[in-house]
Write a structure and sequence with these properties.
single chain; about 650 residues; alpha/beta; TIM Barrel; Rossmann fold; Immunoglobulin-like; 9-stranded parallel β-sheet; 7-stranded mixed β-sheet; binds alpha-D-galactopyranose
């Protein structure tokens, strides 16, 4: 049993960030205390990268410095999210255990000098990680300052070394049972790849030409299980000494080396990091995309934004400033969608080291800065939202997201490089976000009956079980949109024969795809309804479905491009190309209409984000964020928690949290 939920322990929603006091000295710590009070910080993540200080040599610990910081934070009213430092082993560790260093697919063994340079499958690493997690838990497990455990930091590192090869073989034996089954699953009859002993089987290391797709997919599954096992080991070592909730920070939305649905089931609270890739409205949409995924991974339970940046986003190869006001807007965007607070990386901007130029709550310029002033205002705003703790968000539309489908679109030899899984997910979410609709993500095997509308983008891999599930969903009254290149392969990446997608889904959609026809880069095709497609087209036959738009080019002229099939008491829609934004937005708007799903707060102008949080006792709060270019008059003035007064108009860039009656 874990102790009370985070907001109960903090007396409100969480606000704070990664705190690395080991980079500083006494006068700065004193200033930190004062500034944390000013910014209403109540939670600090400590120890994420402190392994070298905590265990200066194997088995010898030095906790004195951490004791002092934890006591200081506690005395200052700041609770602690204590991390295990296992994402960054110290140099002594890698020198003592060179076999635990990361090996790349091409065989290059990396060296220390950065972070995340370890192999999860190396026995020495796993032992050391368990040991330090247990030592920390033993020492701090019941400290009154301790509110949360933060295992590791973003489990992102893959390794292809010999330890990994050995562990992969064990996993493969258990999955496939025999080499014959493995050979069959991986299609090794082609290219003379047949294995005659387990020792011949390797991780998907660098090869001269396409790597075997089945091997690549199984490697992802194996690695995901390995990460989850490593997380559980640390969590269980902690639980032996502590009743506080345990999490690890996921790296959403665009990174997936783990089956996040499976990992999320192991977390006491889902926590996640978010760094948008572009500024402005796109960043706000990315916040929503991230937050909706984090909430959905936890089955709708409140979750925690573990990291965001104050002033920077990564845009390709440069760091761009966020716009003034974005710190508050992004923070509220996450809280609106179920986060129990907002934390940042990091509290004070480093003056040296690898992330000197990464933003922080206290920038190099110090507290007399726009950034710190915005941080303090945001802390004040979050402090006013305590009554929301524990409330949840409800959505009537789901976008399907399966880890296998993601990995399946990462293997070699696909028909088009423009089959981009995360981009497809993001696009579906964006069209719904633009329509003012709150979105859940769901696994393709989930019970979907509570959603009037489900969108399935890029489910290239669709297991028999998922295909049956989707068929049942439509038969039972759901409206389902399936997008191009879906249901092409089964869960072994074997092509579906006789036409795509998988048979049960074909029945629900009333179509059969005969041929895929990727388009040339930059080629556009116009459909009969005037919309335009890029990247992909398909020769498909309506087998019961009605054709809503046809192709108007080349050999596909006159053949169906968009279809709808009434099946059971529901509808199965199929879209066989990548529509441009306008066309896709119009299609999604039509589907929302058909499914009877309206905007969360109808009547608002474009780019005014509205999300509602609901408490179990019926109380409701509406978050409004004006990303548009005009002020918005509210139809009925309401009490705004942020100002403590009645609000009649939302200015450009403004935010409100209205108590609904
Ligand atoms: C990740 C890490 C942090 C920091 C940020 C920088 O999210 O967890 O330690 O490196 O990236 O964006």
């Amino acid at each position: 049993m874990t102790s009370p939920r985070l907001p109960d322990r903090l007396g409100g929603l969480a606000f704070g960030g990664d705190y690395n006091p080991e980079q500083w000295d006494e006068p700065v710590w004193k200033e930190d205390d004062a500034l944390m009070r000013r910014a209403r910080v109540n939670l600090a993540t400590v120890g994420v990268f402190s392994w070298a200080l905590l265990e200066p040599e194997e088995g010898r610990y030095d906790f004195a410095w951490l004791d002092a910081h934890i006591e200081r934070l506690h005395a200052n009213g700041v609770a602690v999210d204590l991390a295990t430092p296992t994402a960054s082993p110290p140099p002594w560790f890698t020198l003592a255990h060179p076999d635990a260093l990361t090996v790349r697919p091409d065989g290059t063994r990396l060296v220390h000098g950065s972070r995340d340079t370890y192999c999860l499958t190396a026995p020495a690493y796993r032992t050391a990680a368990r040991r330090i997690a247990a030592a920390l838990a033993e020492r701090y497990g019941d400290h009154p300052a301790l509110a949360l455990w933060h295992v590791h930091n973003e489990y992102v590192t893959l390794c292809y070394c010999d330890h990994t090869a050995a562990a992969f073989r064990v996993w493969l034996r258990s999955r496939h049972g025999s080499l014959d089954t493995l050979n069959e699953a991986w299609g090794t009859a082609f290219w003379s790849q047949g294995y005659t002993s387990w020792e011949q089987v390797l991780p998907p290391r660098a090869t001269n030409w396409h790597r075997n797709p089945g091997q690549a997919l199984d490697f992802h599954r194996f690695w995901s299980d390995e990460v989850i096992a490593a997380y559980r080991e640390q969590r269980d070592a902690i639980r032996a000494h502590s009743d506080r909730p345990v999490t690890t920070n996921l790296m959403l939305p665009a990174y997936q080396n783990i089956d996040l649905w499976a990992l999320a089931r192991e977390l006491d609270v889902v926590s996640s990091d978010q760094y948008p890739g572009s500024p402005g409205v796109d960043a706000a949409a990315d916040v929503a995309f991230h937050a909706d995924r984090a909430r959905s991974l936890g089955g709708g339970r409140p979750w925690l934004l573990m990291e965001q940046g104050t002033s920077t986003v990564y845009d390709g190869d440069r760091i761009l400033a966020k716009d003034p006001g974005d710190i508050l807007r992004h923070t509220l965007g996450h809280i609106a969608r179920g986060s129990e607070g907002a934390l940042f990386f990091q509290w004070r901007q480093s003056r040296a080291g690898a992330e000197t130029w990464h933003s922080a709550m206290v920038p190099h310029a110090g507290p007399d800065s726009r950034i710190f002033r915005e941080v303090a205002q945001t802390g004040e705003a979050v402090a006013r939202l305590g009554e929301l703790a524990g409330s949840t968000v409800s959505a009537r539309v789901a976008v399907l997201h399966g880890p296998d489908a993601w990995w399946a679109l990462g293997v070699d030899g696909l028909p088009s490089a423009e089959l981009d899984y995360p981009a497809a997910l993001e696009r579906a979410h964006r069209a719904l976000w633009d329509s003012g609709v709150t979105v859940d993500f769901a696994h393709p095997d989930d019970e979907l009956g509570r959603y009037p509308l489900v969108i399935a983008p890029a489910l290239f891999l669709l297991s028999d079980r998922s295909a049956d599930n989707l068929r049942r969903y439509v038969a039972g009254g759901g409206t389902l949109l399936v997008q191009h290149a879906s249901g092409y392969v089964d869960d072994r990446l074997h092509a579906r024969l006789g036409g795509y997608p998988a048979a049960p889904l074909r029945e629900a959609l009333g179509i059969r795809v005969e041929e895929y026809r990727p388009l040339r880069r930059d080629e556009r095709i116009t459909l009969s309804d005037g919309t335009q497609g890029t990247a992909w087209s398909e020769s498909l036959h309506a087998e019961g479905a009605e054709t809503l738009a046809t192709y108007t080019h080349g050999m596909l002229t006159g053949s169906p491009a968009v279809t709808r099939h009434r099946f059971g008491t529901g509808q199965g829609w199929y879209l066989s190309t990548l529509l441009d934004d306008t066309g896709y937005g119009a299609l999604v708007a039509r589907l929302l209409d058909e499914a009877g799903v309206g905007a969360e707060a109808p009547g608002l102008p474009p780019h005014v984000e509205a999300v509602t949080r609901h408490a179990a006792d019926g109380r409701r709060w509406r978050f409004l964020i004006n990303h548009g270019t005009e002020p918005v008059a509210l139809s009925e003035p309401a009490h705004d928690l942020l100002t403590g007064g009645s609000l009649a108009e939302l200015p450009v860039g403004g935010c409100a949290v209205l108590r609904l009656t």
